[in-house]
Amino acid sequence: MILNQEDLNFFDDLDDSIVILKKNSEIIYSNKSFKNFYDELIKKNTFNDYSEFDKELNRKIEKCLLDEDINQKNSSFIKRLRLNDDVDIYLNKIKFDNTDSILLRLKMIEQNSYENTSEDKKNIIDKNQILRKTLIYSPNILIIKKDRKIVFLNKSAEQLLEIGNSREVIGKDFYEVLNFKTKKRSYYSDILENEGHYYSTLPVSQVKLKTYKGREIYADICFMSFFDSDEEFSVFIAKDISTRVEMEEALRKNEEYYKKLIKFLPYGVGILTKGKITFANDNLVNILGETSINALIGKKINDSIKDKDTINEMNRIGENSLSEVKFREVTLTRKDGKEIEIEIGASPFLFENHLSSIIVLCDITERKNAERDKFKLKQALKYDKLKTEFIANISHELKTPLNIILSVVQLLELKEKEECSIGDSKRYLGVMTQNCYRLLRLINNLIDISRIDVGYLKMDFGNYDIVKIIEDITLSTVDYIESKNLNLIFDTEIEEKTIGVDRENMERIMLNLLSNAIKCSKENGTIWVNIYDNGDFIDISVKDNGIGIPEDMQEKIFERFVQSTPLFTRPHEGSGIGLSLVKSLVDAHGGKISVKSKVGEGSEFTISMPNRLSKKDNPHINYKFIGTNKNSSVEKIKIEFSDIYN
Predict the structure, then answer these.
(1) Taking Cα atoms as reference points, which of 218, 222, 210 lies closest to residue 244?
(2) Closest by CA position to 489, among listed 516, 542, 529
(3) What range does the domain containing 466 cover?
(4) Total domains in the fold of the chain
(5) Residues in Cβ contact with 472 at an 8 Å cutoff, skipping those fewer than 6 apart
(6) What confidence tens digit (pLDDT) does each residue in 37-47 have?
(7) Which of 349, 544, 551, 601 could form an S-S bond across to 517 if both were Cys, CB 3.0 to 4.6 Å?
(8) In this structure, are 314 and 229 located in the same domain?
C-alpha cells in the first residue's frame, strides 16, 4: 500500500490510534488519537512509561517481520498482533515517501466489568438474529468467504448465481463460483488471498462477471474484511447493474445514431446556451460561412440575424422559458458579409444540465429565387395576356368610331344624290364629331401613358381653390348627366380650400371619374360628388348607385388595360386605360385613390389630395372652370364623355 499526505490528513481525523514507523522502528508519524491512547495506557498501569511501551512494541514488530511466512507474503499484508492483555495491534507494510515503512493501528481491548445476565444474553441473541435477517434479505449481493471458501451468501446472491439453495455453493472456491471478466482479476485475487486487508478495502468498481451458471452480468462490486476470534473473513458486496449498463449502451448507440443523423441532415443544427453556440453540425458552419465547428463554438448568433424579435424569442428560452420559436423566414448575414434568406426555428432543449435552445436553420435562398422567378414568369404571362386583351380593346376602340365615321360618309354620299334635310346633316356630322373626339381621347390617353412610363409627364402645379375646381367641373356636366336620365348631387363640408394642384390634370381626373359613374349607372340613378376636409388630406368622393364592381376586381381596377367586365359582354365602351391614368395622375400629386363597391349597389371612388400649398407663389383663388374659356371646357367634356353613346 502506498500512502501520501492526503492519507495522513485522513488519519488525523480518525478515532483510531495510527502510527507509522520506519523499519528501524523510528516513529515518523502519529495521529492525534495516539497521544490520548498512550495516556490511557499509563492510567491503567499497563506500562510504567513510554520507554517500556516502546520496548514491548518493537519486540513484537521485530518478531512479526522475522516470521518467514509473513515475509513471503505480498507487501500489502495486514497482521493482527496482541501487544498484551490490553492492546491489539494491526500491522501493515506500506510505502511512505518512497520508503518501506510500517503502519500500525492500535486498539484498546475492552474488558467486561460485569457478568452477562440471561436478559443480556437474550438481547444479544435477538440483535444477532435481526442482523442476520438484514444480511440475508439485503437488496445488495453479499457473499462471505474464508480462505477462498464461501461460508455465507444472502438471497440476492442466490438470485445472482441462479441457484435454489445456498448449500449448492457453500464450501466452494469463490473464484469457481464467480469469474471476473476483467484485467483487474489478479489484483483482486492478490489482495483477497492475504490474511488481512483492513486498509486494503477496494473501492467500488464496475466489472463484468460470469456467474456459477455461466450467465454474464455487469456489477458494481467492492470488498472488505472483518475479524472474528482472530479469524479473518472477506466480504464480497455487489449490485447487479446489467440493466443500467444495457440502457447506457443503448443510449450511447442512440447518441452515435443521432450524431450521424444530425451530421447528414440537410439543415444547419446548433445548440444555444445563454445566447452562445455550444454545439453545431457541418451544415450550420456552411450556412454561417465559418471555417470549422471549433471556430463557431462560443460565438453568438445575434450578430448574424437582423430580426431582433427572433433573437429575443430564442434568448428567452435560456431564461427558463419553455416556449418554442416557430419557423419563420429571416435574413442572415454570413461571415463574408453576404446576405442569404433562411428559415429558422428553435425549441427548448436540456444540454449538459443547462436549459438551452436547439435551433434549426435552412438556407432557402434558391427556393426564394425560384419563387421570385416563378412570380416574374406569372407576371410576364399576366402582362402578356393584358397586352393581348389591350390590343383587342384598342382594335375595337379604333375600329368602332372609324366604322361609324365611314358609314356616315357613305350615307352622306348617298344623300348627296338625294335631297338631305339640314337636320339630318347636323345629326350625321354630330356622330362623326363624337367619334373623332373618341379617337382623340384614346390617342391622348396612350400618349400620356407613354409619357408616364418614361417619366416625361409634365405637371404644372399651382395654388388653386380645390373646392371651386371640383364644383365647376362637376356642375359643367349637369346638362349631359341629366340628358342620360341621371341625377347629380354636389355637396361640400368646406366652402373654400386652396392647395397645390395641377389644374388641368385635376379636371381630367374628375371628368374621367364622372364618365365612369355615368357609364356604370342604371337609368334614373344618382351620382354624388362630395368634398371633405380631413386635416392632412382633402378627400373628394365620386359615388354612384349603379352596377358595382366585383370584389376580386377592386384591387386590379387601377391596373393598366384591366376592365371589370369582358370585352364582348360589357354594357359600355372603354379601353381600360382611364382608371390607370387617373391613379398615375393622383400619384403625381402625392395623393391616393381608393374604391369601395358592391355588385348591384354601386361604387364610390375617393381621391385624397395632400392639404398643402405648392411652392409657387401664384394663388389662383378666383379660378373658374366655366368662364372665358367655355368652348374649351365644353370640348374637354365632349372628349372625356365621347365613349358614352345615346
Answers:
(1) 218
(2) 529
(3) 448-640
(4) 4
(5) 624, 625, 626
(6) 777 776 766 56
(7) 544
(8) no
